[in-house]
Amino acid sequence: MVSMIYSNKAGATVINLVFAFLLLLTAFILISYLMVPEFQFVHGVDGVMEQIRNPNYVSGIRRTILQILCDILPGGQAVQFTTGLLSPLWTLPLYSAGVCVACTAAGVVVFYKKDIK
Fold this sequence. Notes:
Layout: H1 2-5, H2 9-34, E1 39-43, E2 49-53, H3 61-72, H4 74-83, H5 91-113
Antiparallel strand pairs: 1-2
């Protein structure tokens, strides 16, 4: 997509590398939010371990949104594939195909609107 939009080959390469790094960093941040355990154990006043709800645990619609974003990002898919965490692996190729189609379509639309000399 970037190569179709930006005609400078060296610039497009740099943009793609920086963008890929930022997407991987974003994926690691999303996975760190999703990996927080729902419950944590603390020592009670009498020395007995108590299980309490973790205040940092993301739940509900927010968790669903973070999971979908993590599934869409290529870096998130790579981490999930190598570790076997979070999502069922059969969904990842579907998200990859959707991202490929969306990026190609966006690149083609912008490319056709460019004034090529």
